[in-house]
Design goal:
By secondary structure, the chain is mainly α. 84% of the residues lie in helices and 0% in strands. The chain has one domain (2-358): Growth Hormone, Chain: A (Up-down Bundle). The protein is built from 17 helices and no strands.
Length: 360
């Protein structure tokens, strides 16, 4: 719902306005988590408030990817659009590493009881303080020149939904395939795998946090490098080759970790998988933006990115946990990863064939 709302909002009111409001809403949701009293103090009102806070966060974050993609692509100079667009993917993974670093610091500096009772609130309090800064920065930045030209020429779409489904059904289908691999891999490698390593493979939590920090740092560098590469050879070729490599490599990586679980094995597997994810992530925003015209760009990207991401990303840990329970195979997450990778690879090669002239 948020992806649709913010996509329509950004196509009708500008990318800058959408980005500014999502920063404030995210701060509100995060702040509510930081200050919600415990269950022992207010009973069922506590989980109800957390649910409201999470809904606010979800509604806010659903406007980020599409609006930021449109803004970055539309302000970038020719020949650097994939690089500019890839910076949001690099910062996504860097913040995942930063989060792991903060958790690691809390774990090392505070007793476990203090972390569980009040220490965890510090993370959300820090996130809340960033919100007003983000709103100030985004509300003062210049609007996308492409969007300004659209409004000056009175070319903004009156019915973006009808237009994207009527004119671009095949592009939307291809975009959905790309999001399958992107969202599933992101959640699996950076969020699910560290927890899985602790609960199922017996690796120490501190080791998983260190591994995540190293993997995300390497992935960010790969993303920026492959963003530059995509400007030279095309976004879809880089994306297609990265998706194919990920599909072939991801199950053997999981199997190797399960066969001999250790900190060194986790670091090697998470690092290799993160590098492959970086190759996929770098060209993704630019590749998707090229499939839709600017007047419906954020609506289409926002709707597809959040709808598919909710299923294959948000529900990914639930699905792989069910697979492990049903099969008894601790390497089952690798099969899920390979299946989603194959879906993305097929979509990427198909779009590359259909849009060779727009690959760059």
């Amino acid at each position: 719902m948020g992806g649709l709302f913010w996509g329509l909002y950004a196509d009708r009111n500008g990318r800058r306005a959408a980005l500014a409001w999502t920063a404030i809403l995210m701060a509100l949701g995060t702040g509510l988590i930081a200050v919600t009293p415990p269950y022992t103090a207010i009973g069922m009102a506590a989980p109800a408030l957390i649910l409201v806070a999470r809904l606010l966060q979800g509604f806010a974050v659903s406007g980020e990817f599409a609006s930021a993609t449109a803004m970055l692509v539309e302000v970038a100079p020719p020949g650097r659009r994939a690089l500019y667009a890839s910076t949001q993917m690099a910062t996504q993974v860097l913040t995942a590493g930063l989060a792991a670093g903060i958790v690691l610091a809390l774990t090392l500096l505070l007793p476990q009881s203090a972390v569980e009772n009040w220490g965890w609130r510090l993370v959300f309090a820090l996130g809340t303080m960033i919100g007003p800064v983000g709103f100030w920065m985004r509300s003062r930045m210049a609007e996308s020149p492409v969007y300004q030209a659209l409004t000056a020429a009175h070319r903004t779409a009156r019915a973006p939904l009808r237009e994207i489904f009527g004119r671009f059904p095949s592009e939307l289908l291809g975009m959905a395939g790309l999001i399958v691999i992107s969202s599933a891999a992101l959640y699996l490698i950076l969020i699910f795998l560290p927890l899985y390593a602790v609960r199922e493979l017996g690796i120490a939590p501190v080791d998983t946090q260190i591994s995540t920090i190293v993997a995300t740092s390497a992935e960010a560098l790969v993303i920026l490098g492959c963003g530059r590469l995509a400007d030279r050879v095309g976004a879809l070729p880089v994306l297609a080759c990265g998706a194919a490599a990920y599909t072939l490599a991801i199950w053997p990586l999981f199997a190797a970790l399960v066969a001999a679980p250790s900190f060194a094995a986790l670091l090697a597997v998470q690092l290799a998988a993160a590098v492959l994810l970086g190759v996929i992530s770098a060209p993704l925003p630019f590749a998707m933006s090229r499939l839709l015209p600017p007047e419906v760009r954020t609506t289409g990207i926002g709707l597809i990115y959040n709808t598919v991401g909710a299923v294959f990303g948000g529900l990914g840990p639930l699905i792989v946990t069910a697979l492990v329970a049903a099969t008894g195979d601790k390497a089952a997450p690798g099969w899920w990863a390979a299946a989603t990778g194959a879906t993305g690879a097929i979509a990427a090669f198909w779009l590359w064939r259909q849009h060779k002239e727009e690959a760059r």
